[in-house]
């Protein structure tokens, strides 16, 4: 399970965080809706939390 999480799920979670971050930055640079930027940044924080939880589960599983 740890290898599945570390080799497949974790990179997907990190990529999702990066994509949402870039979408938020592009929206701000283009002068887009502040509400959309706020929504994207909240989504980024949620995805970062999920990525950290996955990372901690992998570290815990590999340490067992």
Automatic annotation (TrEMBL):
<keyword id="KW-0472">Membrane</keyword>
<keyword id="KW-1133">Transmembrane helix</keyword>
<protein>
    <recommendedName>
        <fullName>HIG1 domain-containing protein</fullName>
    </recommendedName>
</protein>
<feature type="domain" description="HIG1">
    <location>
        <begin position="1"/>
        <end position="64"/>
    </location>
</feature>
<dbReference type="Pfam" id="PF04588">
    <property type="entry name" value="HIG_1_N"/>
</dbReference>
<feature type="transmembrane region" description="Helical">
    <location>
        <begin position="6"/>
        <end position="25"/>
    </location>
</feature>
<keyword id="KW-0812">Transmembrane</keyword>
<feature type="transmembrane region" description="Helical">
    <location>
        <begin position="45"/>
        <end position="63"/>
    </location>
</feature>
<dbReference type="InterPro" id="IPR007667">
    <property type="entry name" value="Hypoxia_induced_domain"/>
</dbReference>
């Amino acid at each position: 399970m740890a290898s599945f999480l570390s080799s497949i799920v974790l990179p997907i979670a990190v990529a999702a965080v990066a994509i949402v971050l870039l979408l938020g930055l592009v929206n701000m640079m283009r002068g887009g809706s502040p509400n959309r930027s706020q929504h994207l940044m909240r989504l980024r924080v949620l995805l970062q939390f999920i990525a950290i939880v996955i990372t901690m589960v992998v570290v815990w599983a590999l340490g067992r």
